[in-house]
């Protein structure tokens, strides 16, 4: 129904009332009003009062605004696959991916908590289902699983950078020693250790 209302409003030569749109589309006025409100919120139509022809509240006139319709499905997985494919052809792809992840981690680090707790919290929010272990952090899920299986070098470099970014933002005496992928086929392991003493 939304598409039908939007198509009619876009095709109309001039602004129309709810009643006019309902009559032309054979959609009940209450349904038209509902969809027009949603379309206005999405910036696809605009409403203005009709010229007053006497006392009472004036009718609203609706016209289309030029804008892409934001409703409908998204396919971010396809975009991720395409971007990773392109990136992998770049000579320093893994380093670029790691730096991108580092920026993500550094920007999201929360100084109000300790580094490991913050890291686990952020990884959990990102969908990794992390668990703290003596040797570091076990990642039980990968929110980019299909891409990571296909292009682990680039994808896992992003994850490495994310972890390093959070730890670095806390200026913690901790470092990511290793990030092992798909251990036993069901998890990844981020091995974190104290930084060696500075000389």
From TrEMBL:
Pfam families: HTH_20. InterPro entries: ArsR-like_HTH, WH-like_DNA-bd_sf, WH_DNA-bd_sf. It comes from the Bacteria. This is Transcriptional regulator.
């Amino acid at each position: 129904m939304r598409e039908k209302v939007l198509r009619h409003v876009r095709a109309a030569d001039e602004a129309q009332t709810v009643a006019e749109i309902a009559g032309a589309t054979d959609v009940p006025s209450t349904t038209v009003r509902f969809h027009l409100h949603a379309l206005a919120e999405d910036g696809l139509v605009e409403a203005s009062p009709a010229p007053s022809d006497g006392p009472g509240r004036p009718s609203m006139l609706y016209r289309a605004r030029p804008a892409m319709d934001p409703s409908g499905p998204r396919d971010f997985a396809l975009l991720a696959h395409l971007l990773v494919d392109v990136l992998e052809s770049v000579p320093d792809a893994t380093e670029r991916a790691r730096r991108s992840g580092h920026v993500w981690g550094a920007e999201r680090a929360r100084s109000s908590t300790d580094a490991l707790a913050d890291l686990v919290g952020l990884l959990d929010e990102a969908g990794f289902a992390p668990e703290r272990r003596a040797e570091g952090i076990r990642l039980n899920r990968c929110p980019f699983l299909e891409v990571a299986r296909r292009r682990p070098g680039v994808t896992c470099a992003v994850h490495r950078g994310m972890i390093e970014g959070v730890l670095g933002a806390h200026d913690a005496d901790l470092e990511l020693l290793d990030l092992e992928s798909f251990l036993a086929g069901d998890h990844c392991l981020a091995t974190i250790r104290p930084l060696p003493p500075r000389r």
